[in-house]
Amino acid sequence: MRAKKEGKEHIRENLIRRLSHIENIKLLIFEWGLLVFALIMLAITQAFWFGDSYAEKVYTFGGTYIEATIGDVNSMNPLFAVTDSEKTLSRLMFATISTIDYSGHPGIGLAKSITSSENGKIWTVKLKDGLVWSDGEPITNEDVIFTTELIKNPAVTSVYNSNLSNVRVSENENGEIIFTLPTAYADFVTALNIPIVPKHILSETDPRNLVENNFSNSPVTSGAFSFNALQRTGITNEQVIYLTANPYYYKGRPFLNSFAVHTYEDKSSLIEAINAGAVTATAELSGADADKIVSSQFYQKDSKINSGAFLFFNTSSTVMKNISMRRAIRQGLDLTKIRAEAPGTTPIDYPFIESQISLTNYPVIPGYNFEAAKSAVTELSNDEEIKIEIATVNSGYLPNVTNAIASALEEIGIKTHVSVYEENQDFIANAVSRRNYDILVYEIELGADPDLLPYYHSSQASSSGLNLSNYRNTLADDLLLSARDTTNEASRAKKYETFLEYWVTDVPAIALYQPNLTYYYNKNVRTFSNDVRLVTALDRFSDITSWAVIKATKNKTP
Q1: How many CB atoms lie within 10 A of CB 354?
Q2: Distance between CA 94 and CA 8 in Å, rounded?
Q3: Which residues contact 69 (CB under 8 A, 6 or more apart)?
């Protein structure tokens, strides 16, 4: 009882009687409460305004990248890729035995190793382990051998035929693929940059009917992406080919969930699509088109590629088989004015570019002399009108350059007719294969290696070859073959220097300029790295697994 009484007294003394003191300190309590509230609000404000200091936007997985191309897709079989649209799809969907690495040099693709014998005639390829087609079937030596035999088959007329002409292929007891060449080829690894097609899908197909096979419309793939669907859209019958990330790709799954290739019939419709924001990027335009891109969402970057624009003389045509006529035309062209029609490009004088090979002695090329050229043409005409056909394609600066060449030829007394083709199968079949021109103004891929045999050896002066000049010179042939055989760089350079003397004397072609790849892309995406050195325009896809279109917020690690 006493304890209870003491407890009540304690509460009264220490709590109830002290409540009256609050009146004296209420201002202090209010000030402290206000300070705590201010501190809380300051923390919230700081988190809101300075949150970016603790987070960053990074690219992440997902999304679709849409690239615009020109030219129809008639077949998705990579062995028949001719148009830019088909070549783009081929690179995205099909891996190759060898490839061009980030430095612009030949490297391994599907191959684990590529080695040659001492004489350079026997090449051994071992494939990587665990390679898989997009349908889950393994990629094997049989696929490589099957593809090689298809390419060599004249009934197939593959664009890769010249790479493997007269090459025998087999498998040895160690499970390696053996390529046996008729003659030594020091850089045969570059010729193995060919896509492989699946034997388990195509083995029952007659090679003559290969292009009509359903594989051309719905392929099984080995590249970064696999085929999903094809849609035709618009009154112009444009095509949209939808691809999805291939989980079996040997380099790993891409950041992108999907990739779409949207084809257009011409540059004007493609430019409209860019300005409307309908596509992500394109490699089909040149620097001359920059003023037509009005959308502020697009950036432009230019990258050198190992290609060259040339004037090719058809040395088998009635007019151009005369070497004096070819020399007169060379003398009558002011190349400074003609190259001015291709601003931003790099002038070249020979069939090589500096990045391919270093030569010491270059033969002198006769310079521009209008009066001498006009006099020579007059003498060669025998008082008859000279008429020639000039062919080119509607790509980059080629039409402007060709028109400048035609005007210069008219001034020295040669009547010209210019045909500008779209770069498609019709151009290959009707102009190139038939050599249906006196002069062809065209860009060719020079490659990482300075091998000129495909363009100037007499064996390639055929409907399926790339000797666009139909140039034939047995001494030049021997030099090109000998240069292929030689692994010693100094010795090889000497052989090419001697070849150049014939090239300058016989005038099968005139070098014009080294073009750039001009790439227009949406500024919010990640495309190919500026560190990637391009040999061809398609090498922009060498780091395709890193391309991305979606960003996410990620907290920074302190």
Answers
A1: 10
A2: 91
A3: 83, 84, 85, 88, 261, 262, 263, 264, 282, 283, 284
Q: 64-303+518-554 maps to which CATH number? A: 3.40.190.10
Q: What is the pLDDT of residue 263?
A: 95
Q: Any bridge partners for residue 264, and if so which?
A: 70
pLDDT tens per residue, range 479-513: 999 998 887 888 989 999 999 999 999 999 999 99
Residues 82-117 pLDDT 10s: 888 999 999 999 999 999 887 777 889 999 999 999
pLDDT tens, residue by residue, 408-446: 999 999 999 999 998 766 788 889 989 999 999 999 999
Place domain 307-514 in its CATH homologous superfamily: Dipeptide-binding Protein; Domain 3 (3.10.105.10)
Domain ranges of the chain: 64-303+518-554, 307-514
Strand-pair category, 386-393 with 439-445: parallel
Q: Catalogue the E-assigned strands of 33-140.
A: 55-60, 64-70, 98-100, 106-108, 111-116, 122-127
Is the backbone of residue 144 left (phi > 0), alpha (psi -120 to 50) or beta? alpha
What tens digit of pLDDT does each residue of 378-399 get? 999 988 999 999 999 988 899 9
Q: Two tokens at 504? A: 């300058």
Strand spans (E) along 143-224: 168-171, 177-180
DSSP 429: I
- Residue 201 gets which letter from DSSP? H
